[in-house]
Specification:
By secondary structure, the protein is of the alpha/beta class. Strand 5 and strand 6 form a beta hairpin. It is 52% helix and 9% strand. Strands 1-5-6-10-12-11 form a six-stranded mixed β-sheet. A five-stranded mixed β-sheet has the order 4-3-2-13-14, covered by helices on one side. The longest helix has 53 residues. One of its GO terms (molecular function) is Hsp90 protein binding. InterPro entries: Calcineurin-like_PHP, EF-hand-dom_pair, EF_Hand_1_Ca_BS, EF_hand_dom, Metallo-depent_PP-like, PPP_dom, PPP_phosphatase, Ser/Thr-Pase_EF-hand_contain. This is Serine/threonine-protein phosphatase.
Length: 704
């Protein structure tokens, strides 16, 4: 009996170890592919930025169109935005049976929304715009770093990424209770994208924010960014919310969301001891600078306009007391420009802060009036004083930072990840932010007298994870993120002692009904399902790079035998995909048959093609290109589709084609472009949908 017990124990331990190894391999596949997609998004954005820098519009109409398409969300001023998104002009039909909102909001409104969304009802566009309008007004008065105290509530609950998974938010509220005067919440960004119910999550969070402004706090994440939303589903989700409504009001709703996102605070500080940020820090993160940045300037953190930076330098030099020569580097006379130095009166001493502030505001107003007269712009109604502008007026004797420095502060806070190794280096895996080590964390905590950091941004198998000697805590609240059963979600509760208490969960509608024995079998089945999903995604990735893989394999097959060693196969695959995966360990799942330790790579690639080929008339080489570029093509389509209706107008396509042709140096007349766009419109409805867009791409690639 004793020997039998030992054998059973050994078998069970080996079984658990094998399951854990499979789970870790699956995890690395999912995470590597996810980060590679983020890197692709940043590269695609950089490509469009390059096109914008190189493109010279031939007319003011082209200039305005391109500006609206690629600089969306930054050109609207306060009065213009309110007029453009006039929710009061939208009528709610009598046939509407969904929830209704009236302001100021009450707890009953939040309860009604929760019940309506559970029943798959939608909120009318009028109420969505009204809610966004009120949320924006509230956020504009908040500082960049929110302050929370455990003195006013028993505990503070911190939630990580939700990514459009409404079931997880419902489960959090079910387990922990709804926000209330005695229950504070901090939601640490990434409310949207990937999941299908991003809009519902935002509506719920914004509603509770307005009902309990002192108890509910929202941080901005890297996915609260217009350029990221174009790729990962939030923009597409809005267009499918209600085709009838979004065709009319979808553009307005999206515009308001863009503006609301850039007003979200960047961090939250609990009892001046625990800092909550979405991504992380770098060795240059400066909380003093972060507090004073005008965060609304950064609609997209991925986009930094160097032209604006150039135009801002004289202003910065003037305020800091630096002189600037009137000649350029070549010794030529510089172009005349307005002087930012006061001309109406001599500056008072900076020691008298109140008097100096009044003088500065008067001087700035005089310069604005002068600019308006020069460019013949009539005076518009004054902008509402926000928290950021009040801080900048209050601290006029502080040094001014360049836009590049401000942008890097926000980029690092939203995109960075911790690393076990010491130091701070560029995060090339994601393509944005940096990797920061335990030494960077220690110096940062010591500098600002903090106990530890809470961040999100990374999916963790258990929903949370400590690193850097338990000084950095990652919390992730979207369960089943990659696949059902791939990970748990979690939230953390902090009391006055600031000791973290974790609650884990997994939003699954069937698992809680199973017995213990059934759950064990269910867990094994889930691991197999998740594993198969990961390898399916990996095989798609391999197939999408068939041409590059053949070239890499041939470098090892000098005799052109069509066979290479498994070791060379692993090296070649990593050199092409650069995912950092243990290919030798994954080989049994990817390579089914070998002869004498050698792989016939051509037949292996043919097998991959057979798996992916969905239609027999599509050539393998063409399908490879479509697989490799589909995400980029979807993003490009959404960029061109300015109103996010799911359709591209002829004008939108024509202007975008001019942008591409200028880069590719293709001479094409307006008539030629018109013929091209008409040929793509296969159903002749005057618009181009995504299937027609892909079909055109397929036909072009098939041409000899």
């Amino acid at each position: 009996a004793f020997k039998a017990a030992v054998l059973i124990q050994q078998w069970y331990r080996r079984h658990v170890a094998r399951l854990e190894m499979r789970r870790r391999c699956t995890w690395r596949i999912f995470q590597s592919i996810e980060y590679a997609c983020e890197q692709d998004q940043i590269q695609l954005h950089n490509f469009f930025s390059y096109l914008m820098d190189q493109f010279t519009p031939s007319s003011s109409k082209e200039r305005d169109f391109i500006s609206r398409m690629f600089i969306s969300g930054e050109s609207y001023k306060e009065a213009e935005l309110e007029k453009y998104c006039d929710y009061e002009a939208i009528e709610v039909p009598d046939s509407y049976t969904g929830p209704r909102l009236s302001f100021p909001l009450l707890p009953d409104h939040a309860t009604a929304l929760l019940e309506a969304f559970q029943q798959k009802q939608q909120l009318h566009a009028r109420y969505v715009l009204n809610l966004l309008h009120e949320t924006r007004k509230h956020l504009k008065q908040l500082p960049n770093i929110s302050h929370v105290s455990t003195c006013y509530s028993e505990e503070v609950t911190v939630c990580g990424d939700l990514h459009g998974q409404l079931d997880d938010l419902f489960l959090i509220f079910y387990k922990n209770g709804l926000p209330s005067p005695s229950k504070s919440y901090v939601f640490n960004g990434d409310f949207v994208d990937r999941g299908k119910q991003s809009l519902e999550i935002l509506v719920i969070l914004f509603t509770f924010l307005l009902i309990y402004p002192k108890e509910v706090h929202l941080n901005r994440g890297n996915h609260e960014d217009h350029m990221v939303n174009l790729r990962y589903g939030f923009c597409a989700g809005l267009s499918t919310m209600s085709r009838a409504l979004c065709k009319v009001h979808g553009k307005k709703i999206l515009k308001m969301f863009q503006n609301v996102f850039c007003w979200l605070p960047l961090a939250t500080l609990i009892d001046h001891k625990v800092l909550i940020i979405h991504g992380g820090i770098s060795d240059t993160t400066n909380l003093n600078m972060l507090e004073k940045i005008q965060r609304d300037k950064f609609t997209s953190v991925l986009r930094l306009k160097k032209r604006r930076e150039f135009s801002r330098k004289p202003e910065i030099q003037a305020i800091n007391g630096e002189s600037e020569s009137g000649t350029d580097a070549a010794g030529n006379d510089a172009a005349p420009r307005l002087s930012l130095q006061p001309q109406s009166a001599q500056a008072p001493s900076a020691a008298n802060r109140l008097e100096f502030s009044r003088w500065l505001r008067q001087t700035v107003q005089e310069q604005i009036d002068t600019c308006r007269r020069l460019v013949d712009i009539s005076e518009s109604e004054p902008e509402e004083l926000t928290y950021s502008s009040a801080v900048s007026l209050k601290d006029v004797d502080e040094p001014c930072w360049t836009r590049q420095e401000e942008w890097k502060q926000i980029l690092d806070v939203l995109w960075s990840d911790p690393l076990p190794q010491e130091g701070c280096r560029e995060n090339k895996v994601r393509g944005g932010g940096c990797y920061f080590g335990p030494d960077v964390t220690e110096k940062f905590l010591e500098k600002y007298s903090l106990q530890f950091l809470i961040r999100s941004h990374e999916c963790k198998q258990e929903g949370y994870e400590f690193c850097h000697n338990r000084k950095v805590l990652t919390i992730f609240s979207a369960s089943n993120y990659y696949e059902i059963g791939s990970n748990r979600g979690a939230y953390v509760k902090l009391g006055p002692d600031l000791i973290p208490h974790f609650v884990q969960y997994q939003a699954n509608k069937t698992a809680h009904l199973l017995t213990m024995t059934q759950r064990q079998g269910f867990a094994v089945a889930l691991i197999s399902r998740v594993e198969e999903s990961a390898f399916r995604a990996l095989r798609e990735k391999l197939f999408a790079h068939t041409s590059a893989l053949i070239s890499a394999f041939k470098a090892y097959d000098t005799d052109d035998t069509g066979r290479i060693t498994l070791s060379n196969w692993a090296t070649a695959v990593e050199s092409v995909l650069q995912l950092g995966l243990p290919w030798r360990m994954l080989r049994p799942q990817l390579v089914r048959s070998t002869k004498d330790g050698m792989l016939e790579y051509k037949s292996w690639l043919d097998d991959l093609a057979m798996e992916q080929r969905s239609q027999e008339h599509i050539q393998s080489s063409l399908l490879e290109v479509i697989y490799r570029n589909r995400s980029n093509l979807e993003t490009i389509f959404r960029i061109i589709d300015r109103d996010h209706s799911g359709l591209i107008s002829f004008e939108e396509f024509q202007q975008t084609w001019k942008l591409f042709s200028s880069h590719m140096k293709i001479e094409l007349t307006d008539d030629g472009i018109n013929d091209l766009v008409r040929s793509i419109d296969f159903n002749k409805d005057g618009n181009i949908d995504f299937n027609e867009f892909l079909e055109a791409f397929r036909l072009v690639k098939q041409c000899p």
